[in-house]
Model the fold of this input.
Amino acid sequence: MPAISIDTFFACSLTVLLVLSAMTATAKLLQPLIASPLETEAAKRYGEIAKYMMLNVGKPFNWGQNSQTFPEEFGLAEANAQNPYVLDVDKVSRLNSESLYALSYAQIFTILKVSDVSFRLEIKPLFDVGVNLTATFENVDETVYEFEVVTEKSGAEVPTDIKFYVVAEDFLQASNIYNSDGRRRFNATIPNSVNGPALLVVFAKSAFNAGLSSFAAYAFAHNSSEPASRGNFLRLSPLNYTLTVLPLSLNKALSTAYALTFNYAAKLTQIASDNQTATFSIPRFADASPTVLVVTGWNSTRFFVEWTAYPQIPLEIGVDFTKASSLSDVFAYDYLVTIGSAIYKCTVWLGGPKT
Done:
């Protein structure tokens, strides 16, 4: 078999493994064995609860879009979706504790009306993107940064197409699309006249299924001190294709806001502001990719860059079942879900009194 055919075979096999690792409605028992009919019934019951979360739109059906709405019934499905396991971008975002509009675990537990069952829910991309700054070359007028990007799943490198953006003061650079067998190096060049810190945003799509996508954001120093941790200056909360920006202290002056996806980039238009917040309109990109929202500004004399994703993933909410008592039955259910045309892995853990 020619080498290119062998490479394609193994790459396609890896894509299949990615999908199978998060196959819809795959149940994993966290107890060693189902030892009795009662445990079988518990697994079936918990599976129905997990499926209900994925397939039900909740009440009202559009509870995710209105920040003031507290749902009467819980469900994450997108209203009027043509296929099952399509989740609403705003309902998902309201599960992330970083959002101003997040529901708490206690609120969701009450809405579910299943008093003897605890839960945990996680949503994340099907593969990971890792970024390392490997070298810096300072020239008279510009500085060149060399990065290495690794795309992998459970230690296995994933072939992808990669695109990156660099954001700094009044500066946005978009790259070409690079092919990667799972590990790729590239350079980003920033003029020395630009203030930092800077933010590198990397998007990666499976080379064999464009719906399988992931991303990473990496802040680094450029003509500046080391960047502060994310969330130090602003709290960013996207909802209903509107970004609300809340400064976390006084003396914050916003500069520019961007929406970035694999194929598109746009500068956001501010549509409102008051003494506490500013709001921006988010474009509805036709792209099977998360949207990374980036806001730049000044804290007195210090420039900063903040970011969040829309939907606000990865996210996790609920009970930590790794510390669960042996007196509890705990089951986990994996689903492939679609959010805004991109595919993610959703895991629902459910636990209750031991049967």
The first helix runs from residue 3 to 20. Helices lie at 3-20, 37-55, 89-93, 105-112.
